[in-house]
Amino acid sequence: MSDTLPLSITNNRRLDKWLRFQPDRTVRLAVGKVEIGQGVLIALSQIAAEELDVDLARIDILSGDTRDAPDEGSTSSSLSIEVSGRSVRLISAELRARVLGRLAQRLNCSADDLTIEDGAFLQDGNPTGHDYWSFAGPEDFAADITGTAHPKSPSAYKVVGQPAPRRDLIAKVSGAAFIHDIVRPDMLHARTLRQPSRGAKLQSLDEAAIREAAGSPIQIVRVGDFVAFVGQDETAVQRAAVAAPNHANWTGVRVLSPVQQEAAWFRDQPADDRHLGDPDPPPAGTVVSETYSRPFVAHAALAPSCGLAEYRDGHLSVWSHTQGVYPLRNSLADILGLPRERVTVRHSHGAGCYGHNGADDAALDAAIVAMQMPGHCIRVQWRREEEFGFEPVSTAHMTRIQAVLDDAGRPIDWTAEVWAGSHVQRPVFGGTMLAHEALPNPPPPAKANDPTEANGGGGTRNAFPAYDFPAKRVIHHLALQTPVRTSSLRGLGALPNIYALECMMDELAERAGVDPVAYRLSLLSDPRARHLIQDVASRCGWSERGPVGTGRGLGLAWGRYKNKAAYACVAVELDVDQDITLRRAWCAADAGLVINPDGARNQLEGGIIHAASMTLKEQVTLDGDGITSLDWDRYPIMKFSEVPEIEATIVHNPDQPTLGMGECTFGPTAAAIGNAVAHALGVRIRDMPLTRQRIAAALVR
What we know:
Radius of gyration: 27 Å
CATH superfamily of the largest domain: Aldehyde oxidase/xanthine dehydrogenase, molybdopterin binding domain
Strand order of the largest sheet: 9-10-7-17-14-15-16
Helix content: 25-40%
CATH class of the largest domain: Alpha Beta
CATH architecture of the largest domain: 2-Layer Sandwich
Largest sheet: 7 strands, mixed
């Protein structure tokens, strides 16, 4: 049956890797997925508590620890509840059935006569004197997981489907939960001098001038072209790092141009071209074509990346806010020449992620220094300029839509042509880590790659429309090189592709003289999608939408993330004057069985805010030897005062499988804003971000 089991179980078959009954009458649940703001740990705890019939407070969850937790890869792609949640459900149900089966033999009764209340076993409603902690033995955990036990029916749920508070929030709001707060014995602080670009060589370094700038004693660690400043005084090493670039001489530094920061630059670059979908050429007919783009964007985490490492007695221990402790462990071991069993990586909370930011790089920084200074815990915290300048950013992305229309203005053929760099360059997928490129014998440049279509695609994510078009195809131009290092950021190509798709649908509806909602519904048979569109249209007052060009706009868009995860529809009302002011947003989502409705709603709202910020404000700028948007003034994000009122609802659909929803509002929000701006202005802005300059340019065209 292993071919039908979730990948998390297939890779971690022993039950004792997941569950344990502890002497303090708690249940230790170990998982490989980590908490990066999405509330996954409380949801997984709810699943275990439900299937084991124990109080939720008894679940003691351990996550992201290569010594004690299962290997579940990376926490990404909205798969935590889909994959890990399904795994925890099957494992918990199997342990419950296994223990009850043994107890039934002991009591010479049917297992159906037994029930459980908060871990205590009852026979025909009467206490048996046994519970999990007194009866479960090593034999219950020793065998491989079969996946043959039957989990509860959703109709029997008492914990799953109910709101439950996240346990991590109290410490976070009081400022004591983050990796930046960890204090270890023998701890030293470190900062780095960054290699300006791959291949740059450090010709000279005025160490005396740097020590003088530090003002207190520091050590300078150099391994190849990797340089770090280390000391007990964090302020001193910070001063050294700030001064160091002015006292370093590099050769072989690449030179960038502002033209490279726009997605259109990719059109003329070498690419790996793929043709997906309908092989036939488009038929004759009325052809409409438009191009939409999004620039390079940053993760813009509120706190810069941080990593801790200590090398003691031949073992390297690392603390990181990485999305994947096992992939990071494997990369560190390979880079540093250590057996993997001599490296332990433990997850610690970071202040913002949703993609491959600088967390793994900071961990490698700390590990390199720790290997040079055994017996100390090395704490590396990036500076703000370093975070913006050197984290992997999300690639610029351009999508050209070409539709062939019938006499009624409905598409009979649809082609999405995508130009982008790699949306995934994690080390586990062939990407390189920053400090590795500065070490002796650096790795070869990473080869351009993207997730397969079976895994949701990268540049092609959501490029295939879910509408009932007779023919559809995607032409993907994966750029072989990018001017700066790129990797994954929330949604990968879904946001720019849904922006292009759903903005184009509004443009085609306008061309056909049909209401945009009615136009969509006429081309869409999926009942779950239709329900969401109709619900949001009703709640936002779509039928009373005002005329075009008044400065007040109402736009709507929908999508199903990866065309196989959660559905979401979003409507946005806004005003356009010199700038765009968001007034209200409405959302409806269908994610099947929802474990924690409160946490799920937070994800919908967070996705709307994140996407709005990206659509209206965010762009990485390039010039000279790198990224120039190095602070919050040059890389603005949405302020609390700019967040609109959000009304998010979740369709109650517990009999359907759970679908990942952490990224489902991302693309629809961007497109809804684009459509609302077009409604407000009477002209379309097809390139993000929708800045004051682009509004002015659109109005004078």
